[in-house]
Predict the structure.
Amino acid sequence: MHATISSIGIYHPLKEIKNSYFEEFLETTDQWIKERTGIENRYYALENEYTSDLCVKAVEALVKNHTTNLQEVDFIIVATSTPDQTLPSVASRVQTRMNIPHAGCIDISAACGGFVYGIILAKGLIAAGTHRKIIVTGAETLSKVTDFTDRSSCILFGDGAGAVIVEASSENHLLKVITDTDGSYGKDLYLSNKNIPINGKPVIPDNNIHQNGRVVFKWAVSTLTKKIEELVSKNGITLEDIDYFIPHSANMRILETVCKELGIPMEKCLESIKNYGNTSAASIPLAWYNGITSGRIKPNDKLLLIGFGGGLTCAGICLQNNIEMK
Ligand code: UT7
């Protein structure tokens, strides 16, 4: 059985955080943040607003945007590094709050690659014939695990959520995929919630994200450049055949460098970094949604989605866009 994606919804919390917010307590400037990252704005969840709340709002938006029967959903995958709690899963919270009977539920942890990993898993379940209609969400409340004393990381992160439905179809819209990981970089990007060394490096459990920005930047550029080429060639197409590239929005300069190296015009690269910051697992659905609602992405356009981040890990898929807004 083949699979397609024909519905999408997004949500971002309402508390808007401009770059000037950081000028009040850190040695930084709006200009530095814009020039070095491309970020102008991001949103933070309220103190009592959690990842499951954002997921539920994204699924509600999906239902408003499209005609779909949630009662038919038989599996829910939530990609997140910031679950409300480890147990119960965020997916189970979504299941009960959206009143979806009997769905299988899992959270997956693949950081900024999580949304694409979720789509790949959903595609596999449908191909296996065990499930037919699967919600995949990428959602984060990174503001809750941000070290506001670290100017090189705290300016990056934002909160948000995106949800799609992957469903069985006679047409093959979800094409070939790639996945890759180099766990030796685990110490270069991690959430320190336990006093357990990573690759031999001691960790202070302050429950914040820590990253070696320069190392991750270099890895991201070389990995994306290689993996995008590998993915198109695996699909038997060329870079020119792709209408829009949607890489994880970690830093505008990463996207610009990769596009330059591959000769991809920047107009074909969709981002969510400028308005939302780095929202990890949510960044790709946010950019996809904006690409559709701004009229750039059309039905049947060929898209290349590629997520990358903590692991360090990477996942990509080529797909034919089957989403149309009401
Ligand atoms: O989403 C998962 C994957 N994550 C990524 O892909 C992130 C990859 N890394 C990055 O995006 C960038 O490395 C950062 C945005 C994190 C940092 O940008 P950078 O251009 O790599 O800066 P840097 O760490 O090389 O620092 C350059 C200078 C340093 O000053 P000195 O040592 O040259 O005097 C920093 O202290 O910029 C300084 N700096 C800042 N200055 C003003 C770092 N952060 C700031 C800041 N404001 N917020």
